[in-house]
Amino acid sequence: MSARCQVLGTTPGFGHSISHSHVRTKRRFNPNVQRKRYWVPSLGRHVRLTVSTKGIRTIDRRGIDVVVAEILARGEKI
To answer: Which Gene3D superfamilies does the record match to this protein (predicted)?
Structure first.
């Protein structure tokens, strides 16, 4: 599963791990991505989305119908 939120488009961030001796090694900051199943009344079916925890809060705030309509308008397949 890719570390990308379908609602917000959040992708991994990159940076350095810095040790005690200040040696820098590359690291990756992945978003907290969950696989969730939602009932979408406008489509009349369940939809499985890969969403970050912030994306879940966005769905709770704005509603699943509005969010799914935006995802479909972008041309993403659900």
So the answer is: Ribosomal protein L28/L24
